[in-house]
TrEMBL record:
This is IS66 family transposase ISMno2. InterPro entries: Transposase_IS66_central (IPR004291). It comes from Methylobacterium crusticola. It holds the Pfam family DDE_Tnp_IS66. Residues 43-112 form the Transposase IS66 central domain.
Length: 142
């Protein structure tokens, strides 16, 4: 349990709110403004991560965020092209996870690899705007 008087969790929460608020504006701002806001967020995060905490949970959270720090603001480096969260990726994986649970997994590695390859080709076809069938044929021919 995090102590209510520990400033680290609250500062992290405010920082995340600022980052998500900026994510909503990312395509409307010019590159120099995004760069300045990114530097400001990065400085704020650095201060939060170096703030001493008396709570073990808060220290663990600081360590985890510190390890992922270089990945947190990537959406600002590629405005409109990189999602702020990985929710889309999680949703794309959900059908495969459900299928694996319903069938108790795969008995052979080649079966799992084959299904993963088919999903990759189909999802790539959807992303590129091509037809699924044509993309599968082109993949088999290659």
């Amino acid at each position: 349990m995090v102590a209510s008087d520990d400033p680290v969790p609250w500062r992290l929460q405010l920082w995340l709110q600022s980052a998500f608020a900026l994510a909503g504006q990312v395509t409307d701002l010019v590159a120099s403004t995004l760069s300045a806001k990114r530097r400001s967020l990065d400085r704020q995060l650095g201060a939060i991560l170096t703030t001493p905490s008396g709570c073990a949970v808060a220290r663990e959270l600081q360590a985890k965020i510190g390890r992922a720090r270089d990945q947190l603001l990537v959406f600002l480096d590629h405005p409109g092209r990189v999602a702020v969260t990985n929710n889309g990726c999680e949703r794309a994986l959900r059908p495969a996870v459900v299928q694996r649970k319903v069938t108790n997994g795969y008995r052979a590695r080649w079966s799992a690899d084959g299904e993963a390859a088919v999903h990759t080709v189909v999802d790539t076809a959807r992303l590129t705007g091509g037809t699924t069938f044509a993309t599968i044929l082109n993949t088999i021919r290659a």
